[in-house]
Amino acid sequence: MGQTQSYFTEEQLLEYEDCTYFTRHEIIKIYEHFMTLCKTEPGQLTKQEVKTLPEVAVNPFKDRIIDIFSDDGTMSFEDYLDMLSVFSDQATKDVKASIAFRIYDMDGDGFLGYQDLYDTIERMCFRAKEKGEQLQTQEIASIARQILAETDMDSDDKLSYVEFEHIISRAPDFAK
């Protein structure tokens, strides 16, 4: 219990437990780990430090993830805890869907338009690109157009969050 008190007040721990999918013990362990990661500035991870974390380094959306969980280009413990919580196994499918939508909404307009889908597909194919097996521009464009054609329920050439939720409701592996 003394270790808990040296990091957080009881009120802070209760708030973290309420706002995340972690237990008190997990929060303390995450904090201890977070502090070992902060090389440049105590209690803050720079964008570059976050990009090199094993959990993020190979993700083709790492810059989008950092932007969503950090307002100023650095990541505080609370930002880091939120990020880990959303991507944890305990997070609900709805929470994961909300974050995925924000990640894929590259232009931040609240919809997934053609360009958002194109950019998302292109990023998802980054491993193939590294192996020289990348999709051609026309193929990516065709896939993006096909996704819109098949899923845009109100024919406005963009996907709302509700339309996105409908798509992922048919994808049982989405939240895994």
Structure in words:
The strands form 2 sheets. A two-stranded antiparallel sheet has the order 1-2. With 176 residues, it is mostly helical. It has 12 helices and 4 strands, in the order αααβαααβααβαααβα. It folds into 2 domains: 10-87, Recoverin, domain 1 (Orthogonal Bundle), CATH 1.10.238; 93-174, EF-hand (Recoverin, domain 1), CATH 1.10.238.10. It is globular. Helix 8 (93-104) packs across helix 12 (161-169) and helix 9 packs across helix 11. The chain has helices at residues 2-7, 10-19, 24-37, 47-51, 54-57, 62-69, 77-86, 93-104, 114-124, 126-130, 137-151, 161-169; strands spanning 45-46, 74-75, 112-113, 158-159. Residues 92-127 form the EF-hand domain. One of its GO terms (molecular function) is magnesium ion binding. This is DNA-dependent protein kinase catalytic subunit-interacting protein 2.
Name a few traits of the molecule.
single chain, about 180 residues, mainly alpha, Recoverin, domain 1, 2 domains, two-stranded antiparallel sheet, two-stranded antiparallel ribbon, about 5% strand, globular, disordered N terminus
Concise overview:
The chain is mainly alpha-helical. It has twelve helices and four strands.
CATH superfamily of the largest domain: EF-hand
Arrangement of strands in the largest sheet: 1-2
CATH hierarchy, class of the largest domain: Mainly Alpha
Tell me the major beta sheet: 2 strands, antiparallel
User: What structural category characterises the helix and strand content?
Assistant: mainly alpha
And the CATH topology of the largest domain? Recoverin, domain 1
Averaged pLDDT: 91
Instruction: Note the total helix count.
Output: 12
Q: Given the C-alpha coordinates, what overall shape results?
A: globular
Q: What is the CATH architecture descriptor of the largest domain?
A: Orthogonal Bundle
- Helix-residue proportion: 55-70%
User: Count the strands?
Assistant: 4
Report the portion of residues in β strands.
under 5%
Low confidence ranges: 1-5
Organism: Capsaspora owczarzaki (strain ATCC 30864)
Pfam families: EF-hand_7 (PF13499)
Protein name: DNA-dependent protein kinase catalytic subunit-interacting protein 2
InterPro entries: CIBP, EF-hand-dom_pair, EF_Hand_1_Ca_BS, EF_hand_dom
